[in-house]
Specification:
Blueprint (H helix, E strand, L loop, with lengths): L23 E9 L18 E4 L1 H12 L29 E10 L2 E9 L9 E28 L5 E30 L3 H6 L2 H6 L12 E2 L27 E18 L1 E2 L2 E2 L25 H36 L5 H40 L29 H4 L17 E6 L2 E4 L1 H23 L2 H21 L1 H5 L2 H4 L6 H16 L31 E12 L2 E4 L7 E6 L2 E11 L10 E19 L44 E16 L29 E14 L1 H15 L4 H16 L8 H24 L6 H39 L6 E17 L5 E17 L4 E14 L8 E5 L17 E11 L2 E11 L2 E3 L3 H11 L33 H6 L12 H9 L13
Parallel strand pairs: 1-3, 2-4, 7-8, 11-13, 12-14, 19-20
Antiparallel strand pairs: 3-5, 4-5, 5-6, 6-8, 8-11, 8-12, 9-10, 13-16, 14-15, 15-17, 16-17, 17-18, 18-19, 20-21, 21-22, 22-23, 22-24, 23-26, 24-25
Helix pairs in contact: 4-5, 7-15, 8-14, 13-15, 14-15
Length: 1050
């Protein structure tokens, strides 16, 4: 209004005064569905469908598209005084961008990442393979904040050159609710030239890319959840649709977690990302719908999961009470029945009553955990779960968990006042996974290893198709020319040596001098295999990854992974009626980067070392079988059916509370490995850093380093098991043996085949002269690009192809795969040969590359027969293994065992000690000193020659040993290790202990019913009991004298 549009005296009226800003705050949001309540309390998925299909070509296309927005595309064109244009520069949108916030909210969502592959050797067949991973999320919530930050740029000398700004991610939160990860494998019948010849016109028309019809019968999904089927998972940007539209597909459960959360926060300790010069006035503006919430606190999430488990226990207890009432009624109605039937009813009633008391104790235990978490939330105590030790120290399992059974009041109290899992972590990136369930069997192993192999192949192919690969070969040639010029400078300058071979003058002297230099340079360096007197000590139990760092370096806490109450289910196809479960109260992994204070922003030259620490607390191992798993009392189990086939309950999972309560066995399981812990630390130096004379620990800069001092640059790995104690019978031992031999010790066949092919190329080729190699690589690259362009034309004109056109297209595909294979092996062979050559050149200064140290304070194996009868126990104390890999291909190994003991636990044992030190001095024995090792083995392995290992040095140092065993005990041990063979297995001949088929369970131990039928309730009923055998054995043998059975040092 003109009456009010007046400026104060002395000023010009401005209608936009107070509304202008030099900064732009922007937000982008995608939500589907848009009307959903996007809160963490809403755990139910929506009814719509969202899918994200990821492939290798998708990422390549996306990154190429993203590069279009780089600074190169924003250069001013035909501007400036040279062109006579002096127009005023326009305002830059990016320079005024202050914050950018993103929201991506999807419910539910399917995410797939699939590799489709047909290697050159597979073109003999007519199938195309697809391998990948697929995940289903009930809710996907991503909230990401970017802001403009100002920081200093320094030169190589550490001097500040200028101050600049950039957009950086300072806060992020990612939530997965009910994440189900599955492995996907498909065999698709491809189109071959023979198919084209036999096809009629109608079949040829069907090849023109119409939507395929899904045949449900060709999909193997254990739980029959056909929502996982989506043919778009098999669509690639450059792939021919097959004539057979229905692939034989397997979608197998791999892992499940009710909650997965990722946090990012770079503002730590009053600094941004550990850089004192980095500042930003932005970040807290309320410019979008933010879903970051305190309700995502891991303590609160774990409390919700405990409440859900309490509800399950409540329903199980009600069901059990009804079963007790029905059983009491049957017992009252069968008063006049025979004694055997009545005894069976009484036994079943006793089992139900025992289980009712067991459920009551579980409920009390979980309720106390829930109350504790609620108290910590009220008082802001940074702990997630009781007793989850997360310090980086190499901690031991807490022994005060072994209490008397009568002390139920103390048994369920949280056992340790030790430091607990902190939620308020100072790491920039934190990952928290709650109650993860991971499956691993033969089929999953094959799919995952093939997926990893294809990922490696794709990354290698992308690199070999780049200019960097050619430049690598050119640099190698240039380096060799320089080295040749330095080694024979005089001969290159003398022209007479090329003409006259008779003059005995200067030329001969130069030739002789060159020969002498070559001989001297060709001398092989030797490695001192003797162990140094002062061995490098492993990190102490109170030392963390950020301890003992020099003043000129600063630690940067980067990644923190935490798994709360995870469990892994292992099952082998050779023993499908048994399963092994590994559980832990908590696992964590921390990644800390040691940065140069003068160059914190440079991830290459500023990164000195990475320190990775991993710890697993309260590891346990359980074995179950169809013999102990009965559906008659299925309500006594955890009611967790993840990964089981539809209509069955096999294989089972242990309930959540077992990860925190270590006394009784879960129903249907036997605890074979008691509570223990494991820890790992890996110190990795950055080899790309130009400054190699860093001493991270002491902070002293050395101008020259001797061979002894070179250990400071050696990478180190420390692995420690404070205690490992296994109590198992023959069937449980067999289950674990099959898991190790059949499931874990496995090499991916295609990777092995390619490795053998590469080794043949290395042996048959001479890589000392790479003349012509860059041109050959460039020619292959150009040929592949031409074929890919031809392939694109085929795709564009697909609907116009006739019979000959389809044949040409298939031939072109074969040529493309063959050229890609040839390029891959050529580059792989060149890079491998160059690495080996560099290793040989450095033999004159042979130093260690990696030092591995493994240590176990106590290892015990307690052998149990039927009816919980103890047979034998073997003990190893203070066992260690050290290995040093040198850059010349050699490695030095040392294995030490402090004490070796074996005890015969049978009541009528003639020799109670089977293995022990021989201390009778009158007969050649001697007493052991305090720190003396009973066994010490050290050996030096040189670099293999043509694949043949070379042992240069081998030494065994063994103290006098006493071994005594009775014949009957030896037969029982043989029957234990080889069930079903008998104690006289070797007498008849034809038996080999190295064949798995000779280790089948005995008829009595084997359950004849099919595991699926057994789990579905069609097998005969059985009455399982609440197994406490491992606890009874521990109680009988743990409190003896310190020199007897089960007396592992506490």
């Amino acid at each position: 209004h003109p009456d009010f549009a007046k400026a104060p005296s002395g000023e010009v009226y401005d209608a936009y005064r107070g509304f202008r800003s030099n900064h732009i705050h922007m937000s982008v949001a995608v939500s589907a569905p848009h009307d959903r309540d996007w809160s963490l309390s809403n755990l139910k998925p929506s009814s719509n469908y969202n899918a994200l299909h990821l492939t290798p070509r998708f990422f390549s296309h996306f990154f190429d598209w993203w590069k279009m927005f780089s600074g190169i595309m924003s250069l001013p064109i035909r501007q400036g005084p040279l062109w006579g244009v002096t127009q005023k520069k326009s305002k830059k949108f990016g320079r005024h961008m202050a914050t950018l916030k993103y929201n991506l909210l999807l419910s539910p969502v399917y995410i797939s990442h699939v590799y489709k592959h047909k290697d050159a050797e597979e073109y003999k067949g007519s199938t195309v393979s697809a391998t990948g991973l697929k995940m289903k999320l009930d809710s996907f919530m991503l909230d990401l904040h970017q802001r403009r930050e100002h920081f200093d740029i320094k030169d190589n000398e550490g001097n500040i050159t200028k101050k600049t700004s950039a957009m950086r991610i300072n806060q992020a939160q990612l939530d997965f609710i009910h994440a189900d990860l599955r492995a996907l494998s498909a065999s698709i019948a491809g189109t071959s030239a023979e198919d084209i010849d036999k096809a009629d016109e109608e079949t040829l028309a069907s090849l023109h890319g119409q939507a395929p019809v899904v045949d449900m019968s060709k999909f193997d999904i254990p739980d029959n959840d056909f929502d996982w089927i989506d043919m778009d998972d098999f669509v690639e940007l450059d792939w021919i649709l097959p004539a057979e539209a229905d692939p034989d597909t397997r979608i197998l459960p791999l892992g499940y977690a009710p909650r997965f959360t990722y946090f990012r926060q770079t503002d730590q300790g009053g600094m941004i990302a550990g850089d004192p010069s980095r500042t930003s006035p932005f970040g807290d503006e309320p410019t979008h719908y933010c879903v970051m919430s305190r309700k995502n606190d891991p303590r609160r999430v774990q409390a919700e999961l405990i409440e859900h488990r309490l509800d399950t226990l409540r329903s199980q207890r009600e069901q059990n009470e009804r079963a007790i009432g029905e059983q009491e009624l049957k017992l009252a109605q069968n008063v006049a029945s025979d004694r055997a039937a009545r005894l069976k009813l009484e036994q079943k009633l006793s089992v139900l009553q025992t289980h009712s008391a067991h459920l009551h104790r579980k409920r009390e235990f979980l309720q106390k955990m829930l109350d504790t978490l609620a108290h910590r939330l009220e008082h802001d105590d940074p702990s997630v779960v009781p007793e989850l030790e997360t310090s980086e120290a190499f901690f031991e399992a807490h022994e005060n968990s072994r209490r008397q059974e009568s002390d139920h009041a103390e048994e369920y109290v949280h056992m340790d006042p030790a430091p607990l899992a902190d939620y308020t972590s100072d790491f920039n990136n934190r990952f928290v996974v709650h109650n993860a369930q991971i499956k691993w069997n033969n089929s999953l192993r094959n799919i995952i290893l093939r997926y990893i192999h294809q990922n490696s192949q794709r990354r290698g192919f992308v690199y070999y198709m780049s200019r960097r690969a050619v430049k690598f070969i050119l640099d190698v040639l240039e380096e060799r020319k320089k080295s040749d010029g330095m080694s024979t400078p005089t001969r290159r300058q003398s022209h007479l040596t090329q003409i006259s071979t008779l003059s005995p003058g200067v030329d001969d002297d130069a030739t002789i001098q060159d020969r002498i230099e070559q001989l001297l340079a060709d001398g092989r360096a030797f490695v001192n295999a003797d162990e140094p007197t002062e061995r490098r000590e492993s990190p102490t139990r109170t030392e963390g990854p950020t301890d003992h760092i020099a003043q000129e370096f600063t630690p940067l806490n980067v990644y923190h992974f935490r798994l709360i109450a995870p469990q892994v289910q292992l099952q082998s196809e050779k023993n499908p009626k048994s399963a092994v479960l590994v559980t832990a109260k908590g696992m964590q992994l921390k990644v800390v980067q040691i940065m140069d204070k003068d160059n914190v922003n440079d991830d290459v030259s500023g990164l000195v070392q990475r320190r990775i620490t991993a710890a697993a607390d309260s590891l346990q191992m359980f074995v179950t079988s169809t013999k102990t798993f009965s559906t008659e009392f299925f309500h006594m189990y955890s009611a967790n059916l993840y990964g089981a086939k539809a209509g069955t309950q096999w294989p089972p999972w242990v309930p959540m509370e077992i990860m925190f309560e270590f006394q009784t066995n879960p129903y249907g399981f036997n605890r074979v490995v008691r509570r223990t812990s494991a820890s790992l630390r890996y110190d990795k130096y950055n080899n790309l850093r130009l400054k190699y004379n860093d001493d991270v620990s002491s902070g002293e800069t050395k101008k020259a380093k001797s061979d002894e001092e070179s250990e400071e640059r050696m990478d180190h790995v420390w692995l420690e098991f404070p205690e490992f104690r296994a109590v198992c019978d023959s069937a449980q031992y067999y289950a674990m043996y099959i898991i190790v031999m059949d499931l874990l010790l496995y090499n991916e066949p295609l990777e092995k085949t390619r490795g053998e092919r590469l080794e043949k190329i290395m042996l048959a080729s001479d890589f000392s002269d790479l003349t012509g190699a860059p041109e050959m690589v460039q020619m292959l690259q150009e040929r592949i690009r031409q074929l890919e362009e031809i392939k694109m034309y085929f795709q564009i004109n697909e609907k116009y192809l006739d019979r000959q056109g389809w044949k040409d297209r298939i031939t072109m595909e074969q040529d493309l795969a063959s050229c890609g294979d040839e390029l891959f092996f050529m580059m792989k062979a060149i890079t491998t040969a160059q690495q080996r050559l560099e290793d040989r050149r450095e033999q004159a200064n042979a130093t260690g590359l990696l030092h591995l140290s493994m240590f176990a304070k106590e290892i015990a194996w307690h052998l149990v027969r039927d009816q919980s009868e103890s047979l034998v126990e073997f003990q190893l104390k203070n066992a260690s293994f050290d290995r040093t890999d040198n850059n010349d291909g050699s490695n030095y190994n040392v294995m030490e065992i402090g004490r070796i003991n074996g005890f015969n636990l049978l009541p009528d044992a003639l020799y109670p000690e089977i293995i022990a030190p021989f201390t009778n001095e009158a007969r050649g024995g001697r007493e052991l000193v305090a720190d003396e090792k009973m066994l010490r083995v050290n050996w030096l392995m040189l670099e293999a020659i043509a694949g043949i290992p070379v042992v240069d040095y081998f030494e065994i140092d063994l103290v006098p040993l006493k071994m005594q065993v009775e014949r009957e005990v030896a037969k029982k041990l043989f029957e234990y290790v080889f069930p079903g063979v008998g104690g006289n297995g070797f007498e008849g001949g034809g038996f080999s202990p190295f064949m798995v088929k000779n280790m089948l369970p005995t008829q009595e131990e084997e359950d004849e019913s099919d595991p699926i039928e057994k789990a579905s309730g069609t097998a005969g009923p059985s009455t399982p009991r609440l197994s406490t055998q491992s606890r009874e054995i521990e109680r009988n043998h743990t409190h003896d004298t310190t020199d007897g059975v089960g007396s592992l040092e506490r």
